[in-house]
Amino acid sequence: MFQGVLAVGKIPAAHTLETVLEQSAHPYLFAAVEGLSNAENVGALVRNCAAFGVQALFVSSSSSSPFLRRAVRNSMGGIFRLPVVERVELPQTLRELRTHGVRCIAAHPHLDTHTLWQADFSSDCCVVFGSEGSGISIDVLSGCDARVAIPMHSGVDSLNVGHAAAVFFYEASRQRNRV
Fold it and tell me: Is the overall model pTM greater than 0.90, yes or no?
């Protein structure tokens, strides 16, 4: 639906893991996504990254690009303020982050997890989010240091990834005294 506004955007230059690490300040706060097929969910997650000071986003090769039209629209332009490393092989990227002292925390709603308030987001960390349907793969989960769940009332097992990201990033910001 045309609303009287026309814009032309240019995808920013590609980032690498190395440039993200060089250009980000400690403590790092990164996000990673695996298998997010819905571009609108990717855009919502990007908007939350921008809102809560996430320094970079790692997008697996199995996810929609955050530069798709619907993702850009849902990010409300946040995608142009957030360094993105696209088409990564997430298990390998998480291993490399861990060699740099970055804790990888899986947003994982199942019973074998810690609750959000038990997690430590005060040091260098990367929060990993999984697909809308199947969650985070076993390969990616095995590359994470912790599995963390948002406590919810019974009968509700998960949130939309954009909403879950907002809760996780708010808690990280709270622990870092940024909110």
Answer: yes
